[in-house]
Amino acid sequence: MLNTTLQDAEALVEGESVEKTLSIIELITTGGTAGIIIIAILGILFIAAIYIYFERIFAIKEASKVDSNFMNQIRDYVSDGKIDSAQNLCSTANSPVSRLISKGISRIGKPLDDINTAIENAGRLEIYGLEKNVSVLATISGAAPMIGFLGTVIGMILSIFEIANSGGSIDIKTLADGLYTAMTTTVGGLIVGIIAYIAYNHLVVKTNKVVYQMEANSLEFLDLLNEPI
Questions:
Q1: Structural domain span for residue 212
Q2: Residue 96: which residues within 8 A CB-CB, separation 6 or more?
Q3: Best label site of 152, 160, 180, 206, fewest CB within 10 Å?
Q4: Domain boundary among 100, 130, 160
């Protein structure tokens, strides 16, 4: 009796001293085939989101670079009738703002409404270029959590299936595998979705600043043409 008690105590101590650790790789692989597939999909979406974000942020940053003296030079050239020099300056600047001004300069001599329409049409094309692939980020931010929840549903189905077919004896390890699938994919989907959502909104803010810059310079150019000679 005493020996049995001592053995139980030793087993208890040994059980308490063993801490179960689980790395991220083990957490993913333990979730079963369905969990691995869904995590792989989420990984691809994460890489795509990061690539789009940095590609766009550098493109928008480059597009926002406008010489503070650019419009003053345009004003001087247009006032002096040096249209070719103004066009050359726009070509050298090579930015969304300079391309809009270039479009307006090419229409000088026509009614202001025609010039304004030409600038607006060119502006729409520039905005489309700035927003290239940004909508994909919005899609990823919404799709990633749903894909993660799909893994949750699959994991729970696997767990319930094992319970239903256990015949009264539940295999805790098999049940845990289903729960791992459920929890791992949920966390992965939320992480990818949150990151993509933040990246999307940041790009929207940056793009709006460039659009405002384009509008301000376009209005300044139209005001220049409207000034009395």
A1: 34-62+134-219
A2: 63, 126, 129, 130, 210, 214
A3: 160
A4: 130
Q: How far is CA 181 from CA 22, 152, 172, 175, 176, in A?
A: 14, 7, 14, 10, 9
> Domain check: are 110 and 185 in the same one?
no
Question: For residues 201 and 149, is the Cβ–Cβ distance under 8 A?
Answer: no
CA distance 219 to 226: 10
Q: What is the full per-residue pLDDT of the chain (229 aa) written as tens digits?
A: 444 444 444 444 444 444 555 555 555 555 567 778 888 899 999 999 999 999 999 988 888 887 778 888 888 888 888 888 888 888 888 788 888 888 888 888 788 888 888 888 888 888 888 888 899 999 999 999 999 888 888 777 777 776 777 665 666 665 666 666 677 888 889 999 999 999 999 999 999 998 898 888 888 888 887 765 5
Tell me how far CA of residue 1 lies from CA of 6, 7, 13, 15, in angstroms.
Answer: 9, 10, 18, 21
Residue 16 lies in a domain: no
CA distance 137 to 131: 11
What letter represents residue 187's amino acid?
V
Contact 77, 153 (CB under 8 A): no
Distance of alpha carbon 207 from alpha carbon 102, whole angstroms:
21
Task: For residues 141 and 45, state if they share a domain.
Answer: yes
Flag whether 78 is in a domain. Answer: yes
